[in-house]
Design a protein that fits this description.
Blueprint: H1 15-24, E1 31-36, H2 45-56, E2 61-66, H3 89-94, E3 97-103, H4 111-118, E4 128-135, H5 140-152, E5 156-157, E6 162-165, E7 171-172, E8 175-176, H6 182-206
Parallel strand pairs: 1-2, 1-3, 3-4, 4-5, 4-6
Antiparallel strand pairs: 7-8
The structure holds flavin mononucleotide.
Length: 211
C-alpha cells in the first residue's frame, strides 16, 4: 500500500513481515470492522467512517458497523460479560481488528460506543484496534480513554492513532477531504493494526489463551 512505509521508525513492522507471516500460515484474508461511533442526527462519524473504510479496503475485507443503524437491547438485560446476542455481535465476532471512528464528547468517547463495547465480550477478545478520533483538538482524549477500556477486553490498541482537528471544515458535498498528511497517518495506523490483527489471528487459532 502506497505511503505506508516508515523505514526510519524502529517500531514499525515492515509490510513484508506481515505478508510473509500471512502467506506462510495460509490464513484467510484479514477482516476489519470500521465502527462509526456516534448517532446524532447531524453526526460526522459516518462520513469519516466511509473514508476510513475506503482506505481499509485496500488491505482487508471490511465491514462498516454504523452504531446509528443498530439497536442494542435495553440495558436492563445487560449482564457481566455482555448479554443476549445483539444485532452487531456477528460483525464484531468475525473481525480480526477494528477501526473505531469516534468523536470526543466531554473529554471521552460517546455513550453509544461504551454500550456497544459493554454489550459484547468474547466477540472482542484477543483482537486489535486502532482509533480515528476527532474533535476541536483531534479528540485524542476519546482515543486514550478507549485504550483502558479495551485493555479489559484483551483488545490491543495500536501505538499510533489518528486525531482529526475540526474535521467539519473538511467535509463538503463530496464527503471528507483529508488535510495533507492525514491519509498517510491513517495508512501508518492501519499498518500497525494489520500486524497486530494478523499476529493475534494466528495466536487465537494456534495458541488460544487458557482462561
Ligand atoms: C455532547 C457533546 C460533547 C462534546 N464535547 C467535546 C469535547 O469534549 N471536546 C471536543 O473537542 N469536542 C466536543 N464536542 C464537539 C464535537 O467534537 C463535534 O460536535 C463533533 O462533530 C461530534 O461528533 P459527531 O458529529 O459525530 O457527533 C462535543 C459535542 C457534543 C455533541
Amino acid at each position: 500500500m502506497a505511503g505506508m512505509t516508515d523505514p526510519t521508525s524502529p517500531y514499525s513492522p515492515s509490510p513484508e513481515t506481515a505478508l510473509s507471516t500471512a502467506d506462510r500460515l495460509d490464513q484467510p484474508p484479514l477482516r476489519l470492522a470500521v465502527i462509526a461511533a456516534s448517532v446524532r442526527k447531524e453526526r460526522l462519524s459516518r462520513v469519516l467512517a466511509d473514508w476510513a473504510a475506503g482506505k481499509a479496503a485496500d488491505i482487508a475485507d471490511v465491514d462498516l458497523v454504523d452504531l446509528a443503524e443498530c439497536e442494542l437491547p435495553d440495558d436492563e438485560h445487560l449482564e457481566p460479560g455482555g448479554g443476549p446476542r445483539s444485532a452487531i455481535a456477528d460483525h464484531i465476532d468475525r473481525a480480526d481488528g477494528y477501526v473505531i471512528v469516534t468523536p470526543e464528547y466531554n473529554h471521552s468517547y460517546p455513550a453509544c460506543l461504551k454500550r456497544a463495547i459493554d454489550w459484547h465480550y468474547g466477540e472482542w477478545m484477543f483482537k486489535a484496534a486502532t482509533v480515528l478520533s476527532y474533535g476541536v483538538q483531534g479528540g485524542l482524549l476519546a482515543a486514550e480513554h478507549l485504550r483502558g477500556v479495551f485493555a479489559e477486553l484483551h483488545v490491543v490498541t495500536t501505538r499510533r492513532v489518528v486525531g482529526l482537528r475540526a474535521p467539519w471544515n473538511d467535509i463538503g458535498d463530496d464527503g471528507f477531504t483529508p488535510p495533507p498528511g492525514t491519509g498517510e497517518a491513517l495508512d501508518e495506523a492501519l499498518r500497525e493494526l494489520t500486524w497486530w490483527a494478523t499476529t493475534l489471528h494466528v495466536a487465537r487459532r494456534d495458541r488460544p489463551f487458557q482462561r
